[in-house]
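Let us begin with a simple case.
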Amino acid sequence: MTTSTMMQAGQLEPVPSPQKKTTAQRPTPDPQPQPTTPMKAYKPQQPTEPEPTPPAPAQAVVLSEAQKPPKLKDIHCRRFDGKEVYPGLGAGVEAFLNEFERAVRMERLLNQSAWATKLKASVLGTSLEGRASRSYHNFTGCRDGSYEELIANLKKEFGCNLGQYELDKRFDTNKRAGDTWKQYLTYLKFIERLMVGDRSQLLLETVCNNACPELKSTLPSMIHDTTTSHI
């Protein structure tokens, strides 16, 4: 007999189904506030002032002061006319140009001035006269040449065309009968300035050989070879 049949016959009482126990839910505690790191107040960054520029060195100050025009009244140089001094030796333009360059250097040192090449060429023209002045204006009037080209043109027209060997032969000439010793020495010094290197000892030996022929063998030997300047 099955269970259902027995229940129908009243032999078995129905067994109530077990009830599920309800568990009381505990209230969830409120979350405790976590300690927070205090926020720093934002302060806008102040603009930094640029660092002061250090003072310029003394050399830079000197260079800035040197950019002033030259004082032409402080240029002391003889005038050059382009006339030939001695036959075959030119007009002495080499010595004149050396004097002019020395005068410019002295003015620059004296007044701390700055010389442009065009200004130097213009001032050089004021020191020329005669044939040299005409040559200068012919050169500068037809072209815009540099100062170096102007110097080369003056040397070509008024300079000496002899080589060092030919000058050395001229240097060994005796004094002419009609010349004074001063004129003879001036002639030798003119040649000596055209020669390369220091020829002052050779000049002195030449004068000794011609000044007193009877002492020709002894005077030159009294010249000290270690002396740096014999004039």
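The second case is a distinct protein. As before, the sequence precedes its structure tokens.
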Amino acid sequence: MIAQEMTQNITTSSHESGQAATETQQPDTAQHASTGSLTHTQALLQIPAAGIPGKATHNIETGIPGVSFDLHTMSQLITDEALADETLANGTATDQVVVLLARRQLRAAGELIAETRFNEPQNFAMRVLDTSLTRAAGDPKRAANRLRAMLTEFNGTTHEAILQQHLGMAYVESGDLRAAATRFRKALDLRIAQGTDDRLIDSSRRCLEALSARIATLAPTTAELPLVDEARPGNIDK
């Protein structure tokens, strides 16, 4: 029996009343636009830093205190050590794993992922982070294989866009930029079609734009060709 999946529903904020918006276990979400707070699954994804005071526009917030997302490396990085320490001390297991991955503390991240998945084998967030751990350990091709397997499992669900996004990151690290761009485009299309939070739509758009700019710089002529899926002949996993 498959355990209940983590949902991606956004808890929308009500009007500006005299009360503060309810924000449980997400202390940093108050910094974002009032379109709503994010679930833990959504916090794994990149939220644009545009409009957030003090945040560089080339980085994207992860929704986790002390951690940002770098568009060039397509990976998380620590931007505030004190906040990251606080997240490790008081954050959820998901948030702690992201901090550990950003700090390259892979053994500790792996132990926490294994412990959580032992108790919750179908924890979607941890399954995705497990592939991030594989990427961080230097095996992006294996991470991509696992993400593709998850895509088969979650095809047509709200989780598909997350998997497409992370698959794009894995392809960037493996050097297949065109396949990565295809995946970011799929994530963008899915999020637009599903009416996902604007911040997540912008996240996929900015990843696609950043990658397209890199492709244009490396190969201006081929960048004009239509993007093709990574399953094209000569690029199938052996």
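The first strand starts at residue 47 and ends at 48. The mean pLDDT is 75.
Keep these points in mind for the review questions at the end of the chapter.
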